[in-house]
Amino acid sequence: MNAKRILQLAGLSGALAVGLGAFGAHSLEALLIQNGRLDTFQTAVNYHFYHTLALFGIGILATLKPNWKGIAFSAWCMILGMLIFSGSLYVLSVSGITWLGAITPLGGLAFILGWISIAYFSFKNK
After folding, report:
1. Nearest to 37 by CA among 85, 86, 96
2. Residue 31 sits in which domain range?
3. Nearest alpha carbon to residue 116 among 74, 60, 69, 53
4. I need a labelling partner for 116 at 20 to 30 A (CA). Which of 79, 82, 87, 109 fits?
5. pTM metric for this prediction
6. How many domains does the chain have?
């Protein structure tokens, strides 16, 4: 994945995070309160935003350092983390399907791997 694609995905992810955050705050608030998942939904939105910014930073890094090997791996980890971590919390919040909480930590592991890979590749590449 090249820098341009990473930045495109970061832009789309940011727009989605804003949209889901607004939708949750305005249209889903009653359902989220009824399900007791308002805080869970907010956690999903927060992590979605944090890691969208990380993805954007990776895209900028890929633009500045186009020869760095492994930067796409870091981007994929962030994307996978957003899909699994935030995605499972979004669905759990509106559906009440509690077993989804069991896969949420896998998304967290993807985030951790993404952050570690950024550090690793910054040491490895010049």
Report:
1. 96
2. 3-124
3. 74
4. 87
5. 0.90
6. 1
